[in-house]
Write a structure and sequence with these properties.
This protein has 553 residues and is an alpha/beta fold. 56% of the residues lie in helices and 9% in strands. It contains 24 helices and 10 strands. The strands form 3 sheets. It has a 5-stranded parallel beta sheet with strand order 2-3-4-1-5, with helices on one face. It has a 3-stranded mixed beta sheet with strand order 8-9-10, with helices on one face. Helix 4 links the parallel strand 2 and strand 3. Helix 8 crosses helix 9, helix 12 runs antiparallel to helix 16 and helix 13 packs antiparallel against helix 15. The radius of gyration is 34 Å and the shape is flat. About 9% of the residues have low confidence.
Length: 553
Amino acid sequence: MTESFLALARKYRPKKLSELIGQNIFVSTIQNALKNNRLAHAYLFSGVRGVGKTTTARILAHLFNGEEEVKGNPIDLFEVDAARYTTVDTMRELLDGIKYRPSNWKYKVYILDEVHMLSNSAVSSLLKNLEEPPEHVKFIFCTTEPRKIPATIISRCQRFDLKRIPFDILAKYLNDIAKKEKSEIDINAASMIARASDGSVRDALSILDKSLSLGEKKVTEKHIQELLGLVDRSNIYLLFENLMNGKTKEGLEKFNDLYNSGGEPGIIIQDLLEVVHWLSRLVLTPEISREPGVSQIDKEKGLELSKKLSMSELSQTWQILLKGYQELQSHEMPHIVAEMVLIRLAFASELPSLDEVSNNLKTTKQEEGVKTSENKPIITTEEKKENVSKNKKQTGIGTDTVMEMKNVETVKKKIFEESNRKNIKFDKNIIVNNFKEVADLFLEKKEILLFNNLFSHVHLVNFKKGKIELNPTNDAPKDLGPKVGQLLTEWTKEKWHILMTQEKGEPTLEEQSDKEKESIINNLSKNEHIKEILNNFPGAKIEEVKDKGEEDE
């Protein structure tokens, strides 16, 4: 009887702490905790899919009970999907036996996977047991979305964020697994799988499983490209070079060759985006070309092209490709859309860059200034008087009127120059000392949407120079932090980091403003004159309080 097939992700699932890859900080922390007997009663593991959250939880459950390796399915280990326990009754059913001591182990261990799926009622039912658990109980929670977990649970756990596995470590791991399977995989092919899996061990092993099923003695980069529907990297670079050189015909021919060979239009545009991203990184930090896991084609062509292209050209190319990729996702004719995107990119390469336009403008202004100074006639004081007299006779405007007009123009010019000086001074010396000043700055800079979010949709947790911690409401956009940080850095000429947290913060600025307004109205209502007015007009009440001289909106 033949042995049943077992997927690689299950066959080589780590059973010991030493078998975990890419999680060195967690491993060393747990080893020290075991050595010093400092084990917490609850742990929270977060991270993207496939990095080993549940596997780590199982290993830790056995370590709690003095076992170095995962063995079988112990009766005192309760591993459940939290999505099934979303009501009070189901949660009580799960925790019904928590008060009874374990049968074989020292501790009962509850592993709740995808704990962010718990409802509010289930969380409330769990909290009491989590806050004061029996001495023989340990909890381990796993999640891919820690921001959805109530702060009341997070604050009662030791939290570990399991990282994506670095590509070079993951590629080496795949190579070792292939050898154990009595096969061989090219290092570039393993690196390609690592990149495609985005640091997920489970995804990488699934791809390796399929590649080994090809029956080849050695899995090469070409096999992986065909398996994943990817395009040969050298052809992508050739397509990119044709487009950047404005060779529209050659570029479209190369694109159609790739399409006819089985390349998906969306994948081709995505590969071009990856090339632009890689070249942008090389322009800024060329030393990354020496990092392990970088393919030879990326290293050679990347360094060659990064010396020819500027950041402004790469930024423009990125915007065109990204916009085109978004258009392509929602269109029924992706091939046609992709061709139009490439045509747009090829013709954009013929346009002057921003630097060239700026230099041309400066040159033109300088030339015009030289011509003006060369051709401008020298007018004496007597000629000026004669011109004024002529203007008076031709237009019928008196000398006094002409002088008055000159004075007005002079005053206007002074006001304009003074305003410019103030603006320049303000732009150079913007300083914000508190969060309210930050919000006011966004209002002053006409960033109304961002001001509204800062005013109404975030709670200030901590403010210090260069770093602001905020607790966003559900209505706050996900990209609020990066946008605020970027603009604040640009305006103040100092680096600012905006961090989002689940910690409890102050009331929003809007809530503070409403409370202050309510307090002022209450104080005014106690004034004798105001009372008299309100008594004379039944049903009247104070709706709004404004500063003296403030205009109505």
